[in-house]
Amino acid sequence: MNDTHNPALRSWVESANDASSDFPIQNLPFGVFSNGGERRCGVAIGDRIVDVSAVADSFTGGAADIARACSAPVLNSVMAESNANLSEFRAQLSSLLSSDSASRTALEKALVPMADATLHLPADVGDYTDFYASIYHATNVGKLFRPDNPLLPNYKHVPIGYHGRASSLIPTGAEIARPSGQTHPSEKDPPKFGPSAGLDYEAEVGFFVGTPNRLGTAIPIDEAANHIFGFCLVNDWSARDIQSWEYQPLGPFLAKNFATTVSPWVVTREAIEPFRVPAFFRPADDPKPLPYLSSEEDEKAGGLDLTIEVFIRTSIMREGGLRPTRISVASFSDMYWTTAQMLAHHASGGCNLRTGDLLASGTVSGPEEGMQGCLLEITRRGANPLQLSSGEERKFLHDGDEIILRGYFERDGCARIGMGECSGRVVAHYSS
Q: Mean pLDDT, to the nearest integer, of 344-350?
């Protein structure tokens, strides 16, 4: 930690000093935006975006390299920069935006109101991998399908994941067309093809690869965190009725490849340092991670004190001017596997992770009611419909339903920092 994490820091951008802001001066997340022109990279501060490349001459040394890289339409070049340069950029930007800065006049011209900007996917993602890192989610789902054997024997030994579809990653706010696929609702009848009746969301945390590794080389667990550029929110939309029919023996396919929503702001690894907590406490009778997944440092500080909230807004709520209903809240500190373990395992067989690759945690769920990160868990596969404040009920998502994920890091003695929103609305089909 360093001076950029000081909770007493204030900015001359007044909206950044609001206690409810996701983007105080202690955050400074990167994103990609446009406002009537070309896409470029910026940094969020309060309700504004710093158009970094427009004031590149305000930075020096390695920080200037990053400022110039912000003229690109994606963050990949910024993500590829050294951790030293990224840290130098963060320190200089923090100084330029601080309330006692002499550079206010220079930077004011580079501020874009967030309300006037369009936010885009942060990176050109070559590969996307989704994990299954919550033992509570895995157990809850397992009970629905295998009541006598909910947790498969490999779960506590190996981070389970699957390769997702990078081409269907979409930005927050984009519509989600209800997918079609093959289902088998009754053993008495043959399979059928049609629109999913079991559309669901999955509240997840994503993390982008910064420093890559060469094909055929592993990433040691103690170095894994240094390969992570930053964190975002992910909604891995899932068609449960399609998934339950197709997933054996090779796992998810059409049930998950139709859309994955990614939040626009990437909170950097350095920004979240004050919120590191011990990894998930494993009972004495749980197996110890194998040496390539075991690290004293990761055990001590591999977890993240990150809260994830899920809200739903239905068509009736929108028409009636009602606020979205919060349907769950969970903590990322309850994940069985850490982000370093997921990344180290991914590369352990020699897989080359590239700058801009996106890894996601899998559904974030907790041990108690109200902490489940998807409708499959909340409604017990539709058996116990969710009751909404509008008087409606949901087993799975209806057309017109909007899911909103929000995340924030919060600990005593630290400035609260947020991740912004990750939202998407279900439609019957995309407009032509």
A: 98
Tokens of 299: 């055990």
Residues whose CB is less than 8 angstroms from the CB of residue 296 and which lie 6 or more positions away in sequence, other chains included = none
Domain range for 216? 128-427
Write the pLDDT tens digit of every residue in 273-310.
Answer: 999 999 999 999 999 999 999 999 999 999 999 999 99
Residue pair 170/262 in contact (Cβ under 8 Å)? The answer is: yes
Give the Cβ contact number of residue 392 at 10 Å.
Answer: 17
d(CA 364, CA 342): 14
For residue 226, being part of any structural domain is answered with yes
Which residue shows structure tokens 């373990």? 341
C-alpha dihedral (250, 263, 432, 252), degrees to nearest 10 = 10
pLDDT in tens, 13-50: 999 999 999 999 999 999 999 998 899 999 999 999 99
- Using the 3D structure, point to which of 99, 120, 141 is the last residue of a domain: 120
Q: Which among 137, 227, 345, 346 is annotated as catalytic?
A: 137
The helix or strand, by DSSP H or E, that contains position 199, with its residue range, turns out to be: strand 199-200
Full-model pTM: 0.96
**Domain containing residue 266: CATH number:** 3.90.850.10
Domain boundary among 120, 144, 168: 120
Whether 137 is a known active-site residue: answer yes
pLDDT of 219 reads 98
Whether omega before 249 lies within 30 degrees of 0, making that bond cis, reads yes
Domain for residue 432, yes or no?
no
SS3 track for 112-181: EEHHHCEEECCCCCCCEEEECCCHHHHHHHHHHHCCCCCCCCCCCCCCCEEECCHHHEEECCCEEECCEE
Q: Are residue 104 and residue 152 in the same domain, yes or no?
A: no
Domain count, the chain: 2
State how far the alpha carbon of 390 is from the alpha carbons of 249, 345, 398, 410, in Å: 40, 44, 14, 30
* Structure tokens given for 132: 């299954």
Q: Around 432, how many Cα atoms within 13 Å sit in the side-chain half-sphere?
A: 0
Q: Are 105 and 171 part of one and the same domain?
A: no
**Domain harbouring 57, CATH code:** 2.30.30.230
